[in-house]
Design a protein that fits this description.
With 417 residues, the protein is of the alpha/beta class. The chain has helices spanning 5-13, 41-54, 89-100, 102-106, 124-140, 149-155, 182-195, 239-244, 308-321, 370-383, 397-400; strands spanning 31-37, 59-62, 78-79, 117-121, 145-148, 170-174, 178-179, 199-201, 206-212, 215-221, 224-233, 253-264, 272-275, 280-284, 289-300, 330-340, 347-350, 356-360. It is 28% helix and 26% strand. The termini are far apart.
Length: 417
């Protein structure tokens, strides 16, 4: 089933009775070449690119709940490529390029909206730091524009430019950044993987990982044992728990990150806006709701809910930046479980167990990485060698201290706990 304007028109005129299921609701078989634990954005994109790029279709994606029910459906949907350090910069640049062609690639409307992101600065030091980052972005081949105070005002006239504590001096604009529809991304990759023969198995929780003589042999699940030549752990905030089934202790802390949506409003915010003096970011969805978030709740937890001090902190930042949001009613809030690495950068690597692979540590940045993460993980699983854009995402950097990529000082800070 392919989508097209003609097909949509035909179905609209015939009662929409011709649409089929978007993917097969498969039952587990006894054995697969590859088992992917985790049916979120990263797991589904890995399955898709295994099939498309490498012709490996004897693949099962195991999800303990429903597809897209984790962080891929609980985030603020921001897509960007504004990284500076080697290792991160080329990876996220690759991801943004994949985002730009994703709807045509998947034949699915993921509602990619390149509305642009503006990161504000409020001091001379911040201006210099963003100028350096902007130059690094341009050197990577991505776009970046420095905006003066008046340049920001032309784009964002509703901000509080003369806040006594946080006056706005200017900002940096990436026009190719923007947002996408989070659950549509999961559905598009699920549909594409299923069409290529991948089994998507929901309500199938992994309860154990079978290892013999240092080699993975399969997994134990609530729907029986499944043999596999290769297994990939791609479970975001549950990474430490699942890796423990294989006898691994990961350098990961799981934290709650809250996000919020307001009631639907008339169009007011055309960009993604990031506060330079506090970790706060906001955009407006196509349905009119203001989508915004801030810092982690700053305590380790597996509960997908947040605390009230975290709520207050985000609301204070929003009011300091744009007092107009105080008139909007918050419609709902939710918490996603973030897999926080010590240096704030991800892990895509083999494990000491032969045939067992790991994808985790996405911190705040998991959504924008979905296409490139799947591309790189599929390459690693299929070939046994890292993809060129993800070669620095090694697990052993936390043991040796060599190759750490502390991009924004936003890692888990294990030394503080």
């Amino acid at each position: 089933m392919r989508f097209s304007g003609l097909r949509v028109l035909k179905e609209g005129l015939t009662g929409n009775k011709g649409w089929g299921a978007h993917w097969r609701d498969a039952s587990p078989r006894e054995a697969y070449d590859v088992v992917i634990i985790g049916g979120g954005g990263h797991g589904l994109s890995t399955a898709y690119y295994l099939a498309k790029n490498h012709g490996i279709t004897n693949v099962a994606v195991l999800e303990k709940g429903y597809l897209g029910g984790g962080n891929i459906g609980r985030n603020t949907t921001i897509v960007r490529a504004n990284y500076m350090l080697p290792g991160n910069a080329e990876f996220y640049s690759h991801s943004l390029k994949l985002w730009e062609g994703l709807e045509q690639e998947l034949n699915y409307n993921v509602m990619m909206s390149q509305r642009g992101q503006i990161v504000l600065f409020h001091s001379d030091g911040q201006r210099d730091a963003l100028a350096r980052k902007g130059n690094a972005m341009l050197g990577q081949g991505d776009d970046a524009e420095m905006l003066s105070r008046e340049g920001v005002r032309r784009h964002l006239p509703y901000l509080d430019f003369d806040n006594a504590r946080f006056p706005i001096y200017g900002g940096i604009l990436q026009r190719r950044a923007g947002t996408a529809r989070h659950d549509a991304v999961a559905w598009g990759f699920a549909r594409g993987a299923s069409d290529r023969g991948v089994d998507l198995i929901q309500n199938c929780e992994v309860t154990g990982i079978d290892i013999e003589n240092g080699t993975v042999r399969g997994v134990q699940t609530t729907r029986g044992a499944i043999r596999a030549k290769k297994v990939a752990i791609i479970v975001a905030g549950r990474s430490s728990q699942v890796a423990a089934m294989a006898g691994m202790r990961l350098p990961i802390e799981s934290h709650v990150l809250q996000a919020f949506v307001s009631e639907g409003l008339k169009p007011a915010i055309n960009h993604v806006v990031s506060f330079g003096m506090e970790h706060f970011y906001i955009s407006q969805s196509d349905k009119g709701g203001l989508v915004f978030g801030g810092h982690l709740d700053m305590y380790a937890s597996y509960a997908a809910r947040g605390n009230l001090p975290g709520v207050e902190h985000v609301m204070e930042a929003g009011m300091a930046l744009m007092p107009m949001v105080g008139k909007a009613k918050v419609l709902r809030a939710w918490g996603g479980i973030m897999d926080m690495s010590p240096d704030g950068s991800p892990i895509i690597d083999k494990t000491p167990t032969e045939g067992l692979f790991l994808n985790c540590g996405w911190n705040y940045g998991g959504f924008k990485a979905v296409p490139a993460s799947g591309w790189a993980t599929a390459h690693l699983v299929a070939t046994g060698t890292p993809h060129e854009t993800a070669g620095k995402f090694r697990l052993d950097r936390f043991r040796t201290g060599y190759g750490l990529m502390d991009e924004e000082a936003s890692g888990a800070q294990h030394n503080l706990h």
